[in-house]
Amino acid sequence: MQDSAVPELDELDRGVVHALQIHPRAPWTLVGDVLGVNPVTVARRWQRLQDAGLAWVTAYPRLSNTRVVVTGVVEVDTEPGASADVARALAAEPSVANIKLTAGGRDLVVAVQTRDLAELARLTTLMFQRIPGVRATRTHVSTGVPIEGSRWRLRSLDALQSARIEAALPPPARSATESGWDSLDAWLLELLCMDGRTSVNDLSVATGASLTTVRRRLQSLLATRLSLRCDLARPLSGWPLSAVYFASVPAQRLQEAGRVLSGVREVRSCAITTGPHNLVIDVWLRVLGDVHAFEAHLSRQLPSLTIDDRSVVLSTVKHMGRLLDENGRSVGVVPLRHPQSLRDGAVEQLAEMGAHDPRGT
Questions:
Q1: Whole-Å CA distances, 361 to 221, 325, 335
Q2: Rounded to whole angstroms, how far apart are CA atoms 23 and 21?
Q3: pLDDT 10s digits, 8-25
Q4: From the CB of residue 166, how many other CB atoms can be counted at a distance below 10 Å?
């Protein structure tokens, strides 16, 4: 049983996490060489962090490509006292990537991933209709993701160390083919969602495909349709608080807004959306008073930006498929499914899908 307190990370732990934030599947030989320690020691440190739910690597459909996945940001109003129960029910849904319990103009902020707009409409309607305690929902369609949470860094490595890890990243694909997903793609996504560092050999054993096939398919998926990220329990990041801002800028200023926001360290992610707000901005903060101080800072950086509303995050229940406890630690995973697997009848079956413990798979 885990202690309620989140332990501090030492410098080696932080270095390992930073290295995997840059290159989530970096070989332990490389990470050990960069950090000046034995690769076995590095691997053991990572295993300890992962087993404690303090850090993890996961895969997810590439959010920047709407031909791969359409994301809906859903504001959920619940009946009084029902928000936690609604969040738990939603957490079992493979199509639900993120769930935040919030204080403000909505009780929950939920991210839903589907293959297209029609599927988003159908899925959200059926899903929210059958969950007791939901009073109202408002769905904002994401049309772009200029800033992803995977870009955030712990800043433990120096510039030379970071450059060595970056140099080992696979080169970008010259020609991205985006053929339809098949059963092997689906299986690889689910396995990598549970552990993004699963070896090619273990992926081959789990799927029954040959090593050559798995290696080739994995390279193709990571080049075109899947992203990997290394996440850390937020209290360990030095930014223990979180808030969501619903903001607007003139359409001609969206590109500029993305550039400016990408240079603000507190900004964890940002989605361009339809509806009354065209920006939904997730930020990490150090203290509660920073909620308004940060808003003032944004106004100075982007005079054209208007903050229409804001919500403090009380707790994050689910994050890119990971189930989190009150301290932000991973305690389970509901593997994300590739959007094209949500065929007719699948929505009704989602309620039967349980959460999977990552250490039991």
A1: 22, 19, 11
A2: 6
A3: 899 999 999 999 999 999
A4: 11
